[in-house]
Specification:
Elements lengths: L14 H29 L9 H13 L9 H33 L1 H15 L7 H8 L3 H26 L2 H9 L4 H38 L5 H8 L5 H29 L7
Length: 274
């Protein structure tokens, strides 16, 4: 008996069907939201909890395409630029440090003994719990926010790089050394290219945490940024601004994840990316 086309264990789905199935949950969510919003607004036209799509569109137009009367800036784009700068610096710095430490931990037993327990200890500390310490130590400016993102993501990335190195067959290292390669060449010309796609995949997985730390830091001490704006307007119950901002953050995160995935597929065709 053949498996059903859609949900069978070995079912083959044409592209149009995959797109259709992927869109069904989103369509249902929009329908449910529209029905709930219409009901609340019918009972109370001043209700702010579930704004209509037209109200959210007006808010987006105001935030993104109209100059702010006080600053003369387009608020959404200023907030986006500020947040992207912070998360880019924090994640790139964490990626570089994680690659350097994780790679050498996996290759040299002395480095593993030196850093393994410390990295494990750091990874157990909730980053949000030390946010006050970071702001006291590094100030409430850009450095404090970047350090929160850095400390929140570097242990995860480091351990991922370390595990990727340990999975590489030892025979490769022995053969390279037998053929006359130096230890430096083995580490950076044989091992490094093989773990780069895994590192990029780890960065993809860490972006969700990075956004969490960014928004938390902006909510507490900032004058711009996507997280700052969300927590600023919440006191006015401006859900017509908050919901589009949340969707905008989600879209940015999705686009960054997609670009990293395409980079992996293009540059490391041999790697099976998820």
């Amino acid at each position: 008996m053949k498996s059903p086309l859609v949900f069978g264990l070995h079912a083959h789905q044409p592209r149009w069907l995959k797109v259709l199935l992927a869109g069904i949950p989103f369509a249902l969510l929009l329908i449910i939201y529209q029905a709930a919003s219409d009901k609340r607004l019918a009972d109370n036209p001043q209700d702010k909890l579930l704004p209509s799509f037209s109200q959210m569109a007006d808010a987006v137009d105001r935030m993104a395409f109209q100059e702010d009367r006080r600053t003369g800036e387009y608020i959404l784009w200023v907030d986006t630029a500020s947040s992207l700068k912070r998360i880019a610096i924090g994640v790139l710095l964490a990626t570089f440090v994680a690659l350097l430490i994780g790679l050498n931990m996996g290759m040299f037993s002395g480095m593993s003994s030196l850093f393994a327990s410390f990295i494990t200890f750091i990874s157990m500390i909730p980053p949000l719990a030390i946010l006050p310490i970071l702001f006291i130590s590094f100030g409430v400016g850009e450095l404090g926010k970047v350090m929160l993102i850095f400390l929140g993501t570097v242990p995860i990335l480091t351990r991922d790089v370390y595990m990727a190195v340990k999975k590489i067959p030892r025979e490769q290292i022995v053969k390279a050394l037998t053929l006359g390669a130096s230890e430096f060449a083995v580490v950076y010309k044989v091992i490094l290219p093989q773990i780069m796609p895994r590192l990029l995949s780890a960065v993809r997985l860490s972006l969700g945490a990075a956004w969490l730390f960014l928004i938390a830091s902006e909510a507490i001490a900032s004058t711009d940024g996507l997280g700052y704006r969300i927590f600023l307007v919440r006191r006015y119950m401006s859900m017509d601004v908050i919901i589009p901002y949340v969707l905008w953050i989600t879209l940015i995160g999705f686009l960054i994840d997609y670009l990293l995935l395409q980079l992996i597929k293009y540059k490391y065709r041999w790697y099976k990316a998820d």
